Amino acid sequence: PHDSFDAYKRASMVYHIDKLTIPLLVQVATNDKQEIWEQNELFVAMLKMKKPDLAEVHVYHDPPGGHGFAGLIDPKTMEMQNTRAQRDAWNHIWRFLEYHLEPYRGE
Fold this sequence. Notes:
The protein is 36% helix and 11% strand. By secondary structure, it is of the alpha+beta class.
């Protein structure tokens, strides 16, 4: 960010929160090795502050699998690992989609 702030600002989600107009579900893991936690933490805080009615945010503390915790597959069975964090994440995903896509409104 210090060497090329303009490029950093264009790429950082934090600087685009004000443009958000549709509901957003965000699930982050504190042990994510693919994302910088401090950036996720700032993004989460800004969403909660600026778009509390549009953004649903869930922070998972050190779930097995880190970044891909919701999609963990058991290599022996090729089925979901069914961890507590994984079940919780998918419950939030389905509830979010059902609420915002309103699949039963076709009457």
